[in-house]
């Protein structure tokens, strides 16, 4: 195997992320949707709690996609798309909609981008904290 090769995000990894995010959300009594994408932006795993608002499925996926494409947590990008921000036209510039609300975080392994997780359903700060908890569990 090439010494620079990085193991891609696997289905097992995605299931770990989903379970950890849901555990964090359940402990806060927040029903959520969780989306995990691989490095190519393809859906690896998705789960919507029965009581999660329906739009959370779409927001979790868009948050994951945004974090993946920009290789940054969506929480860190919010100021960039405000009217006076350098990327204020970015949300409408692409065919695939981006979402600049906290809750999306890229997933890295050995310093390389291998996917992203997005969470929707709670307040943005809650969604971000659930995604962070999931990444911590994956790193174990």
Describe the secondary-structure layout.
Layout lengths: L10 H17 L5 E6 L4 E6 L6 H16 L19 H4 L10 E6 L2 E9 L3 H16 L1
Antiparallel strand pairs: 1-2, 1-4, 3-4
Helix pairs in contact: 1-4
In brief:
The protein is α+β, with helices and mostly antiparallel strands. 38% of the residues lie in helices and 19% in strands. The protein has four helices and four strands, in the order αββααββα.
Q: What characteristics describe this protein?
A:
globular; 4 strands; 140 residues; alpha+beta; four-stranded antiparallel beta sheet; 4 helices
Number of helices: 4
User: Could you state the order of secondary-structure elements as H and E?
Assistant: HEEHHEEH
Strand content: 15-25%
Q: What does the largest sheet look like? A: 4 strands, antiparallel
Span from first to last CA? Answer: 23 Å
Main structural class: alpha+beta
Fold and architecture overview:
A hairpin with a 4-residue loop joins strand 1 and strand 2. The chain has 140 residues and is of the alpha+beta class. It has a four-stranded antiparallel β-sheet. Helix 1 packs across helix 4. It starts with 10 loop residues before the first helix and ends with a helix.
